[in-house]
Design a protein that fits this description.
The structure is a single chain. The chain is of the alpha/beta class. The protein has a single domain (3-250), classed as Beta-carbonic Anhydrase, Chain A. It has 11 helices and 7 strands. The protein has helices at 16-22, 26-34, 39-42, 74-81, 97-103, 124-137, 156-164, 172-177, 184-197, 199-205, 239-250; strands spanning 6-9, 12-15, 86-91, 111-116, 145-151, 210-218, 223-228. The strands form 2 sheets. The protein has a 5-stranded mixed sheet with strand order 4-3-5-6-7, sandwiched between helices. β6 (210-218) and β7 (223-228) form a beta hairpin. The structure holds zinc ion.
Length: 251
């Protein structure tokens, strides 16, 4: 067995030929992304228009939810993807999507943005959709970097997932932790959630192309600080495991 044929990351070991067999189709990709189509209702802004993955995110203060436009065919999508340097997965948050895009070189670099509620941090059902999305996009070898991100200072999606699991707090994760939004305890857990959420992208693109980041929210400057999550240190944690930990703390 030649080790060069393996992409290894935290127990995920695959022969390259197996990766090929698993690639999703365009229809599976579109269907998977449609799983996030209602995300604007989570934040009570169902009326806002979505954007295409090749658009600039909306200005600070507006949500940027990415969906595939109805009239976009696979040929055109592939043509647009051929120019792309970077894929940025980020939360659609009105304080995060635009600053994260700018911080990653949007406007200079060709960025394909996947802005959805929670970025790479998802509950298990939506994480499965992300695996399909990552698998489809993994075929575009011209992409040199994938930024797998979410943010602290209360991600509304994380709050929504925890609420769905019976953990209600209007301050979301920091409220449940009994710390201020942006506290290092929130950051540490967000980094673990991001480390888990980065895994489908590492599987699809290889560990050398994927960089996991926490967008530290800076509301005073209408900016974010894109902090690299050290994947050799952050213990991957999913939403369901986090909920279990928080329930045990409450007991
Ligand atoms: Zn968020």
């Amino acid at each position: 067995m030649n080790n060069k044929n393996y992409q290894t990351y935290q127990g995920v070991k695959m022969v390259k030929s197996e990766r090929k067999e698993m690639l999703s189709t365009w229809d599976q990709f579109k269907e998977a992304l449609a799983a996030f189509a209602q995300d604007l209702t989570i934040v009570g802004h169902a009326e806002e228009a979505t954007i295409s993955p090749f658009d600039e995110p909306k200005d600070y203060g507006q949500y940027s939810l990415v969906q595939i436009p109805e009239n976009l065919e696979e040929d055109e999508f592939k043509r647009k993807m051929a120019d792309i340097d970077t894929i940025l997965i980020t939360c659609m948050d009105k304080r995060v999507a635009r600053p994260a895009w700018v911080a990653e070189g949007g406007g200079n670099k060709k960025i394909m943005i996947l802005a959805i509620g929670g970025g790479v941090v998802q509950n298990q059902q939506r994480h499965n959709s992300m695996e399909i999305i990552a698998s489809y996009l993994g075929k575009f070898n011209n992409v040199s970097q994938v930024v797998a991100a979410d943010h602290d200072c209360i991600c509304g999606a994380v709050k929504f997932f925890l609420n769905s699991l019976g953990l209600l707090h209007d301050q979301g994760l920091p409220g449940l932790l009994k710390v201020d939004p942006g506290d290092k305890a929130e950051k540490k857990l967000m980094e673990s959630l991001i480390a888990y959420g980065a895994q489908p992208w590492i599987k699809a693109f290889g560990a050398d192309k994927v960089i996991a980041k926490n967008a530290e929210v800076d509301e005073t400057n209408h900016d974010v600080n894109m902090v690299v999550v050290d994947l050799s240190q952050a213990e991957p944690l999913n939403i369901e495991q986090l909920a279990e930990q928080l329930k045990q703390r409450q007991d």
